[in-house]
Design a protein that fits this description.
The protein has 561 residues and is of the alpha/beta class. The chain has helices at 2-6, 28-37, 88-106, 114-128, 131-135, 138-148, 162-175, 207-216, 228-235, 243-263, 272-280, 324-337, 354-364, 380-385, 400-408, 421-425, 437-448, 451-468, 471-488, 511-517, 554-560, and strands spanning 11-17, 42-49, 70-75, 196-200, 220-224, 266-269, 311-315, 342-346, 371-375, 389-392, 412-416, 430-432. Helix 15 links the parallel strand 10 (389-392) and strand 11. The longest helix is centred in the middle third of the chain and has 21 residues, at 243-263. It is globular.
Amino acid sequence: MIRSALEVFVRVALLTEGARPYAQRGGPGWSARLAEGLREHEFELYLLAGPAGRGGAADGPDGVQGRFDAVHELPMWGVRPAGRGPAALRRRQYLRAYEQLVRALVMPRERGSFGPGLYRLAELARADGALPAFLASGQAQRVLERAWRSPGADTAAGQPMVRDVLVAADLLEQCLRPLSAPWYGTGPGGLGAADVCHVIGTGPAALPALAAKQLHGVPFVVTEHGLHLREQYAGYREAPYRWPVRALLLTFFRLLTEETYRQAALLTPGSAHDQQWQRRVGADPARTRVVHEGTPAVARPAAGPEPTAPTVVWAGPLEPGRDPALMLHAFARIHAELPAARLLVHGEEAVPGYLAHCEALAGRLGLTGAVEFAGRPASAAEAWRSGTVVVFTALVQRAPLLLADAMLSGRAVVSTDTGVAREVVGPTGLLVPPRDPQALAGACLALLGDEERRARLGLAGRLRAQERFAVEPVVTAFRDIYLELVSNWPAYPDGRSGTSGQRLRPFARPAEYWMAAGPAGAPAGVGGAVAGERRTSAGAGADAEPEAAPEAKPEALAEVV
């Protein structure tokens, strides 16, 4: 109870993306678990959604919308928001700021003007809300065309055509749309009223945090579970745009990522592997702290008895990057030495025609009766339960949670030594070089022939995953991070003064509130508050003053502590 008496109520603005055309990631589920674990703080979700709105992202199977004090949504892709363009004088200011930004995208020597141009557009958009209409105007398109075709512009990807200018202008408008969101200010729903902004991923989701820091001095922390910039580079290889447009947009995302890393108070990548990538993009190691992504699957029981026949399980999307062909070539060697062995391939076709390619390869290797392409399993736990050994063969293991989920089943794991595999599996599994079917076959045969070793490694892997990927350590880490940021960051650094006689406070509720009428476990009725109260009163804004609490009596304080 001592900690409950001293807890501080912090207002946290969670910024994330929902559905979007490329490099889709889930965000609100993890955010909801964080908000659920830190019930002493106030969380508002700011969601950049797809053209059709949330589409279930914030009302998913976990019912995550109910975990937040408020959910604010901005459609990101599709038709721009309605609104008028700026007046003549303001239009010239918009043109200068936009030219500064686009020249940073096309002129290698002017990269440093990206941030000033971005923040100037944010200030203008906050003043009149005319940014979307301006970015869609002919004047903005002409600025982009003139800068893109001027001497010294980087055209290594090809000379831009008129249609490239039109497509790129439209995409930039959508990427910059968060700057025009009605989220800036210090009133209810305004990011200026938050104590901390927490960005889940980077890219456009970081724009409101950058603007809130610039306009209101609000610090922000960035959490990445899979790097946004890396996903953009991978996704734009198949984007339906010409190379000049792809190059321009990738430059935008790179400069935005660099600015985000530079301005963030703290970066919390989900793995040391991602931390290394962040450093290559300019992240400061002193402001980087690895926080593994927690999963509720740590409470799931182990898989249970092994199947009767020795079975190798491979799971993941059927695509060249996951290299199921390596598994098939290795299994041909396994099957030659152990004819009773079976291979179960779980996963859906991610590249058209790739399933047929894998089936044909299995036929050429003489494995038709020993290999089963089982499709997508009902659950990951069911996939691991169906095997004796679990194998991962990706050319780059980027997602720690899939490996951790297999380890939580208690099955022994074999993985190619790429990406996060060594970090996640450690000494509790077998690591083999990528694209080496002989080494992979040898590791699988060693485990299939040694039941005691399988059991030992499976138990060790389960314990390791439970320790590293539990939800509780994540909640504890961010509880400390939030308090560290707000305690070391100046309250109201923009120097604004209260209105209507309001007293400015560094946190949503002063420490006296928690001493006199604290959270669950405190004496009910002290100071007129209800024990366990977390949310503000209905209709009260984020800056609403709580009811004055009487001075705590010594005996009441002793009872709380």
